Amino acid sequence: MLRVPASFRNFGISEFLLSFSSLLSDHLRNHRLAEAALVFNRIPFPGVDLYTKMITGYAQRRRFDDALKLLYETPVRDAVSWNAMIKGCLDCGELSKAKELFDGMPEKNVVSWTTMMNGYLQFGEVEMAECLFREMPARDVAAWNSMIHGYFSYGRVEDAKKLFDVLPGKNAISWTSMIAGLDQNGRSDEALLLFGEMVASGVKPTLTTFGCVVTASANFWGLDLGVQIHGQIVKLGYCFDEFLAASLITLYANCKQIENSHKVFKESERKNVVVWTALLTGCDSNYKYEDALTVYKDMVISGVLPNQSFFTSALSSCFGLEDLHRGKEIHAATVKLGFETDAFVGNSLIVLYTKCGNVNDGVAIFKRIGEKNIVS
């Protein structure tokens, strides 16, 4: 019998269950699975939503036997519970287990089919994903978008374009996926033309769409269109988004207008590591090495932690100046933050030391790189 905590005795039963649901969610969110299980077992008649939360928690921790046991104990096993279990298996790399559950589902909905299709794409089984897409008894736009994205992920641009052309009811996500996919596959000019078609069709671009278009403009060196999009971004109030700011900084830097990159940076109210990295990389690519190292110093002072790309660009500026002293200072920071063994950072360190005549130090860095790539 459930013992009601004293603090809950003045609650109604709905508030009581809501409190337990909140506590369960908190434990699962913070990976306290044992505590979550204790809370779940104290709930008298958990609904399917609570069963689904617990099943997902077990699956995410690779406790598939416990998750399956709970799935079969669920009084009403709906598609949501099954889908949660299948996604949990896929997230843990268990494709065959996910397929076994999918095949055993009594009733599949479009989310079930799409989840399994995405699983095949996740593991590079594009042909199997195609088969599943064709076999779907009903497809929503999310299923079409997922298959289009999957084609682009594996470089099958023409297949993605053909699918998009026959997609009924294209939404903003459909258009944005196409724009991003074309740009990422080296067809930035086509991506920009497609954006024009999107606007002409009456579909409103989202914040994500603008980000993809600015990135495509930067890759294509399309300054005129990029400036127009920048104006639209300001007009719609999207200019406060960090990732859009970073894309605009890169656009102007790629088009050799680094002063405008600095202007966008200064106008950005919220500066995360992506925004700082975009400015530093832009300075470096425009041979403004001293400016780049000033950006590095300012970010460190601001308290924002550098990432892999930030260190790579900073080190690039050091060997651009052949400044071993400042390069060693940055090297010390990579060691402190655990980036020295990263292949990309390690490669930049090798170039720095060897270019400055310290071949033995370059060899030592090479040996410490965890997973060497062909560049190493």
TrEMBL record:
Note the superkingdom of the native organism: Eukaryota
PROSITE patterns in the record, alphabetically?
A: PPR
PPR repeats sit at 78-112, 140-170, 171-205, 272-306
Q: Which InterPro entries match?
A: PPR_rpt (IPR002885), TPR-like_helical_dom_sf (IPR011990)
> GO BP, one example?
system development
Q: Which Gene3D superfamilies match?
A: Tetratricopeptide repeat domain (1.25.40.10)
Under the heading Pfam families, the entry gives: PPR, PPR_2, PPR_3
Alphabetical UniProt keywords: Repeat
Asked if Repeat is a keyword of the record, the answer is yes
Q: Which PANTHER family did the record assign?
A: DYW DOMAIN-CONTAINING PROTEIN (PTHR47925:SF29), OS01G0913400 PROTEIN-RELATED (PTHR47925)
Q: What is this protein called?
A: Pentatricopeptide repeat-containing protein
